## 1
Amino acid sequence: MPIESGGRTVNKKRFRADDPERREWQDPEKILASIGLREGMTFVDAGCGEGYFAIPAARIVGPRGKVWAFDINPEAIAVLREQAAGGGLLNLRAETGSGEETVLCHSCADLVFFGIDLHDFADPSMVIRNAREMLKPSGTLVDLDWKDIPMAFGPPAHKRFSEEKAAELIAAAGFRIVSIDDTGPYHYQIIASR
């Protein structure tokens, strides 16, 4: 669905937070557990869409934790807010904003998460620098993204970042790459520390 942002039109596919087909190839609870998300943490979901990762993250961190989520698409944020309210997730705050201009908090996040969207930002380097601003000194950045291989769905090949390209962008923002892992047939995951 095209949306306007800073004078440019952005096409962003929306993944529903309750998409059962997506759960077959991408289990959000399993992924969040694998990156160490636990009760009491503060989690930032950058480019959250309708909350495919933000909703389960809010359940995992519990009432003592906090989830900050943002997306450029105001309709997706409205859906996420409605789902969070309906689920009693008072620990989830969702905002409309671009990754290049959004810093939701300073040195507050244990984890900043890019869920298959780093390639979508107009200036991914700026978005990664903003993520660094939001992270605690001991915080972790996680980039889960599409492999740069032919497949029947996902973004066009020319938009995808290879693991090497994504790791290079993350390292250039001052992060130390901790691991680069294969997370199934379609995705890789990069974990980086400040």
## 2
Amino acid sequence: MSDISYHDRQAEGDARDFLALLKPRVMSLVVFTALTGLLVAPVPVHPFVAFTAILFIALGGGASGALNMWYDADIDRVMRRTANRPIPAGRISGGEALGFGLGLAGISCVMLALAANVFAGLFLAFTIFFYVVVYTMWLKRATPQNIVIGGAAGAFPPMIGWAVATGGVSLESLAMFAVIFLWTPPHFWALALFMRDDYSNAGVPMLTVTHGRRATRRHILAYTLILAPVAVGTAFTSIGGPLYLAVALGLNALFIRGAWRLWRRDEAVAEAEKYAAEKRFFYFSLLYLFGHFAALIAQKAVLNLGFGGW
């Protein structure tokens, strides 16, 4: 009995470690934004097709996470935030993670093409390639603009969801892409402000390492000011409306205020306060993105009821 219990616990632990390779928190963002793209598209999708499509998009996102952890295991070992991940902690080998990630990538892309359409499947394959090869293997270790260019990978999911429904790309899907693409730098640079030593120890040329925290604060403000009109302007596309506009105006006013306060921060004060304001801005940025995409879904629901449009 005791041997069976031990092996059961070991199997459960292994399952949790493989689940951790999928980066569930990142996957949840992928799922939500892809679902938004699918739901706000002008072409209705059968519920079963929608469910299977989102499932395979989630698996594709998880595959990206596993392949990222496989390649970045050396970096993860020296960063406090990532040292307990399955590979650096020794609970899963690099080869297992590589095989797991490649298997999921192949299954997710093929099955999405079969469940929805070939364009959506190819788009998912391109997204995985971009995240793993272009961002993880190249940009991340090569340039402080890593998160700016590489952030495109995280901005593709709503376009994939839209492609599931429509089989193509449109101004509306590009607008959703643009919101995430421009949101990504201030979101991650806020994290880098209070995790600078981790990136420095790992040799990752994050902007805080190469240019310092003062310059990073200026970049956060600049990108926030560029992001705001794009996010608000989405209200005037076919997927927007008064409800979305009201939410976007409120969220962007708060986001700009937060970025302005970070820009004015004295570094000595920030360090003494253990970067509390920077952490608040980082966590609010998650709410900011969720709020915009939730508002798009709510706007679509209101329009389907026959009111709430322009």
## 3
Amino acid sequence: MASQTDTSPATARSGLPALRACALGFIAAALLAAGPALSQSDPVVAKVNGMEIRESDLTMAEEDVGQNPQTQQLTGDAKRDYLVSYVADVMLVAKAAEGKKVGDQKEFKSRLAFIRNKLLMETLLQQEGKAALTDAAMKKVYDDAVKQMGAEQEVRARHILVPTEDEAKAVLAEIKKGTDFAELAKQKSKDPGAAAEGGDLGYFGKEQMVPEFAETAFKMDKGQVSDPVKTQFGWHIIKVEDKRTKPVPEFTQVKEQVETYVVRKAQADYIHKLQEGADIERLDKK
């Protein structure tokens, strides 16, 4: 489907969980600054020394710890209890840090400023990506990708892999006598994955196989068995089961990939536009 190039470190992230290193202090700052202005749609779920923990705090906490393998296994009440406990710990430690004037330290202020800029960047890029995600944009990406695919040919083949040419000739002689190819592959082939399936490799394009194998397979007709073919892996006897034009996947099959591409491209284009209008100076180099 459409290529998803890594256009920028920023475009590889679509949410907020990227702020791992400084999450504790930043979430704490957000929680302590929230105040009473939150609406009734964001109810208080707990209190820590009088400080409120709201539903939105649990959402932020879940985003922050969501990639942790241990927390991914939690569900229902167990997960909610963990999140409440996590936010409570954040608030308690943050309050203690305030008492020790940690917020006045130069290193903290520098780090907080960096995190603020990063969060602003990620939030804006998320919004730009969401705005670009229209049905028309996704359809265009899909249609363009289909055109690029063209009429690519595929072959479905079986093979039997053996170490030497003499063994390959012996296998071919058995096939010519009428021995079933699939059964012979299970008994003789040194390709364990394919051998278990009777040597079946499924459908593949020409670029998916080593050149010697692909050249032979794509020249053969359906039902034909090859002479021994040497590759870097050994000697092959190939049987072509079918040939077809590669089917185009339905939009629903690749919708998630299309969405990701549209979002990342919109984000990359937005960054590039800002870069073009920016005056970036390097003072550490002549």
